[in-house]
Amino acid sequence: MSADLVEYTLRGRVAVIRFANPPVNSLGLALRRALAAALERMSGDAAIDAAVLVGANGTFSGGADIKEFGAPEAFMGPSLWSLNSMLDESTKPVVAAIEGVALGGGFELALSCHHRVALSSAKVGLPEVKLGLLPGAGGTQRLPRIIGIEGAINVMLGGEPAPVGLFAKSPLFDAIVDADLITAACGIAEKSAAAVAAGQPLRRIRDAKIREPDLEGLLQFARNTAKTAFKDYPAPLAIIDCIQAAATKSFEEGIAEEQRLFKGLFLTDVSAALRHVFFAERAASRVDGLPKNAAVRTVESVAIIGAGTMGTGIAINFLNAGIRTYLLEVGKEALDRGVERIRATYDGQLKKGKLDAGKLAQRMALLVPTLDYAGIASADLVIEAVFEDMAVKEKVFATLDATVKQGAILATNTSTLDVDRIAAVTRRPADVIGLHFFSPANVMRLLEVVRGAKTAPDVLATAMALAKKIRKTAVVSGVCDGFIGNRMINQYSAQALAMIDEGASPQQIDAAIEKFGFAMGPFRMSDLAGNDIGWHIRKRQYAEGKISTPAVIADALCELGRFGQKTGAGWYDYKPGDRTAHPSSVVGKLIDEKRAAAGRPIRKLESREIIERLVFALVNEGARILEEKIAQRASDIDMVYLTGYGFPIWRGGPMRYADSVGIYDVVRRMRAYAALPGADTAFWTPAASLQRLAATGGSITGGAA
Ligand code: T1G
């Protein structure tokens, strides 16, 4: 037994087995081996009558070791099933002492114990569904037996850690204590050992029978929910099948069904994608070259420049985090409108019961509207959210440089402009950084943290720490036109517009990519965000010579003032007060006219081409962004698209999706699109890194767990 993984100590005639695998005691092969050895020792140790299992580092276990899933160790013995069988066959009682969390395989280990004691602060759960899996170590068979069918469905389909108090009325825990967990657990162990000595059988959850009068109704309701709410995810229905087996078959037959379905799910692309996202989410918070405990600056007050939609949305993030927030505007009317917009947002949450009046008052009290730069001189962080125009932003930063205290961080919310150029107008470029929020800024999780060439390490570390505090998924980007997300979406949009020129309709393109899984297609999205935003960027890029083929139809649409929902008409028509997108005869006529004027051949485009040209455009530009080191890693690019652009999470993100297709085939299809008449051959030439991967059979995300 590896001493550093398992500590075996005695309390009277009870063995306390403390197991450790920091940071979450995940049950990897080495720990499983050490636990098996401890259980063997416990069984053969005549000096003890019972045992307590307890996790080290203040937590029980975060479950099976997900990092192991891509490796042979995941299925090497002793498996979790082996440990659970050893507990099933034990003649001595074993008590699970739970603090922190017992999740997944960790909770399943506790369910195989004869008794469970928990600290009242502990949480338990079966989050496997979030990985596209099901609890594969007996959880689907034991949990319904101890908390009933309905509770088990909620735990396994919800996947959220639940406070142990929720189960206080069920026999799940023999005791829930506020302190002295080990003492309580040993007490229960001794009591159980005495009962065994007196001839009573050991209590095992697997022996319990399920009595559920409304089994069919409950399962049918759960299946209907799974088919609508989780239509792209196979795991929920498989979980319900396992629960049905638990209620209608023997324990052994149920376990066999669970293992069969678990192995099937493990091999699905959806599970591979969701396991990739689990690690991608955590990797994004790491900045290469910056130590985890890098120095950060104190941020106790924030100033937002600009009380428009973005500025007020950004401000709400900081008010929600309890940070004093100045809101600066140049005109009183605009400032008052901004304050009103913030209050209206909170009033809306109050009406929906998402916020109480006390919290609303607290947050509004932290808001300090001001018309004067001198009023924000003491702010620790200033975020500029003014009009997306370089001259305007340079003027703001020159003013900030002259008025805001030394040591303050000066951030721009620009969505595409050169952060280094903005920094250069100040005498403190090391204090300048990009914090690109996505609209609506108080809702969208994504925050692109744009590090300038001169941005100081502690400024970057502070931005990353603050992102966590305001519950954003921060992704570090280098400086380029559009950073990560918008640079890629520009190519995605270019392909969408090109396919209009070639013969597809806006509704056909939107329908195809929404069937692929995007929340909204490019044209519905553009109508929502405002077609004039893309128009403004294109006009700048035309002037800078960055676009060779003008988007004639999109420009003509804007020249007609069809900016989208905000003008009641865009690519689609809208009825007043109704966001439903109706195909527009005006747009159809405009498209026909412009196609005729261009004199290009028109053809029918299939959905496959539409989807590939949109998604592989993201992949190709993403690969170039990686090559230029604008993004740190492919999984960061996936996080940008999953949290900021509505990419379907069950596909893992554009880069992960490319791996699931196979880079060889992606490159082959890119070459086919480069050969189309009138194609942007320069763009469709596969990125060098993709060509290398296609030749070597490698993956761009480095292979997911
Ligand atoms: N395996 C491997 N590593 C894990 C892990 C796990 N189960 N859980 C967390 N980590 C790593 C994580 O990647 C990060 O690493 C560090 O621990 C801290 O995590 C058969 C098959 C436990 C509530 O889905 O919910 O059991 O980035 O930042 O906010 O039925 O982690 O530092 O290198 O999230 O304090 C089921 C997933 C597995 C639980 C802690 N279990 N983990 O949250 O820290 S499948 C889960 C969590 C299974 C069986 C099936 C959370 C946490 P790094 P963190 P945290």
Describe, in short, the structure shown.
Among the domains are: 6-266, 2-enoyl-CoA Hydratase, Chain A, domain 1; 301-477, Rossmann fold, CATH 3.40.50. Helix content is 48%, strand content 11%. The chain contains 28 helices and 19 strands.
Architecture blueprint of SSEs:
Blueprint: E1 6-11, E2 14-19, H1 29-44, E3 50-55, H2 80-89, E4 94-98, E5 101-103, H3 105-112, E6 115-119, E7 123-125, H4 139-147, H5 149-158, E8 162-163, E9 175-177, H6 181-197, H7 215-229, H8 235-248, H9 251-266, H10 269-283, E10 301-305, H11 309-320, E11 324-328, H12 332-351, H13 357-365, E12 367-370, E13 381-384, H14 390-403, E14 409-412, H15 419-424, E15 432-437, E16 446-450, H16 457-469, E17 473-477, H17 485-502, H18 506-516, H19 522-529, H20 531-543, H21 552-559, E18 572-573, E19 582-583, H22 585-598, H23 607-627, H24 634-644, H25 654-661, H26 663-674, H27 681-684, H28 688-696
Parallel strand pairs: 2-3, 3-4, 4-6, 5-7, 6-9, 10-11, 10-13, 11-12, 13-14, 14-15, 16-17
Antiparallel strand pairs: 1-2, 7-8, 15-16, 18-19
The structure holds (2S,3S)-3-hydroxy-2-methylbutanoyl-COA.
Residues 23-24, 26, 62-67, 80, 101, 103-105, 108, 127-128, 131, 133, 135-137, 139, 282 line the site of (2S,3S)-3-hydroxy-2-methylbutanoyl-COA (T1G).
